[in-house]
Amino acid sequence: MKKSSKWQDISGLIADSFRMSRANYVVLTFSAVVESARSIFQMMIPAMLIDKITGADAFGSVMNAVFFYALIVLLADASKKALSLFSTAFGYKAGNRAALSVGQKGMRIDYGGWEDTETYEGMLRAVRNTWVFQNITDLLCENWIASIITLVPVLYIFSYVDVFLLLPLSGLLILEVFLEKKTDKRVYGLEEGRAADEKKLHYDEKVMTDLKYGKEIRLYGAMEAVVKKYEESRQKVFCSLKQQKKAEILFRVSASAIACAEAVLIYLAAIREYGKGAVTISFFLLFVGAIRLFTESVKSIAENFEWVRELADYYGDYRKFMEKQEGFLAAGGKKDAVQVPFAIEFRNVSFRYPGTEEYVLKNINLAFPYGKKIAIVGENGAGKTTLVKLLLRLYDVTEGEILVGGINIKEIEYSAYLKLYAAVFQDFKLHSYSIRENIAFQESGKDELIWELLRRQGLDGAVKQTKKGLDTFLTKELDQEGKDFSGGEKQRLAMVRALYRNSPFFVLDEPTAAIDPLAELRYFESLKEETKDRTAVFITHRMASTKFADIIVVLDQGKVEETGDFDTLINSGGIFERLFNIQACYYM
Length: 588
Ligand code: ADP
What we know:
By secondary structure, the chain is an alpha/beta fold. The chain is built from 20 helices and 10 strands.
């Protein structure tokens, strides 16, 4: 990731915000012009009225002027409000666009990247900070441009008087900006530190409220422990928020004291000029107004400048996430077609997880001919899931290569590559969407095919019993009329989803871990039938299930220790036979 200086972040922020909504810049610049015209006009009103009164204008004419001036100020305010309607809409759109690009970026980051908490927290921060795009536009246009335009007539008025009294005033302004900067820095630090605590709080909240945790929590009497954890997390976040509030209040009190001192100085300066007899009463009023506008504008520019730097910090989080390496989707090869049938070959493959030293797979050499059923077995931690993760390119190999149809999988375009596979994992996830969406991931699926697959998996009866058929939601989480399926039914639904994909290669990572041996038997019979002219690799911890396999691969401590069919391995005196006999004992 390239390093970026504060200035690069500032220019990046301005360029990105401009790219996200040019219309917002146009509207807000126009609004800034209206705002400064209003301020300057308002500054001139007392002097103009005094001139009229001392010039012995008729009472009616003075009153007309008052109404006329008030009308102009009102019109300026109304146009500003009208413009703010547009800028709010444009700003909202810009924020949306930024949040969407963070979401899309997240989807492009590979699985390995996602296992890294820094990536996850980076994404949370990036989404949370997308407000900066609206703020930078507001600041640059409404404060900066408006203040600069306002300063022109103000400085012109100053050219008529002795301006040395402005020095202490500038000192006070600098002090205020300095204090504000310190406070902002503290707030940013606290917010950053809070991100991890907030993540934990969200998790604790989920554990307390999510149905899926409820059963175990009650059974194990863990209610108190869970509530305690939640309370601790809330307390931590609360403490950090309290510290932030304290810093903010302290700053506000100091800022009020400084504002008081500023007011005293303004009047002293004005009285001094008037006392010298060099100016008229109307110029005195104009001067007081001009000094007020001067302090407001300079403060606004200085604060704005500081604030831009702060915004650049927030933007830095967004940029860092957007620059994260995307992995396979971006770096995938160009080849997009693999001809079916294809064989798969692991050639001298070794692998260690990113950021770790130890190899979890060592010099793997395997061949999966097309159309075969391959079982991968081995004790926990042997590397079975990792092998499958490499095949699905959730990670890239550290050494060696995986060939599909003779092509190194790194050379194949990633999304085309993934289309070759239908995978069911042990912790497969079904969603609180309709049954159709769970299977097709679309609102309109090929209903006939879905019904046919449901029938083949023995689920059509259960779905037909529901009022809404394929539109029935899974679980009651989002729909009272939703259907709760049993463990085995969910299993088969996940299988329907995989079959619907119609891929030539099935990958099943212990999908039967949660069902009983009889259901597992039926599952594998159905699997064999459904995938008869396709390849299927399945990981299982039940040795008996390997009877369905044409090839069994036994992994041990990251190495392939045995390969062969069931009849060969069961009498080989090796690991497979030992594991089989241990499990068989339990069934005898
Ligand atoms: P199996 O599926 O045979 O139980 P795994 O492939 O899940 O084994 O794990 C193999 C080894 O890799 C284990 O030692 C495990 O701790 C390690 N491992 C698994 N996932 C990660 C990961 N994301 N980061 C680091 N090490 C991991």
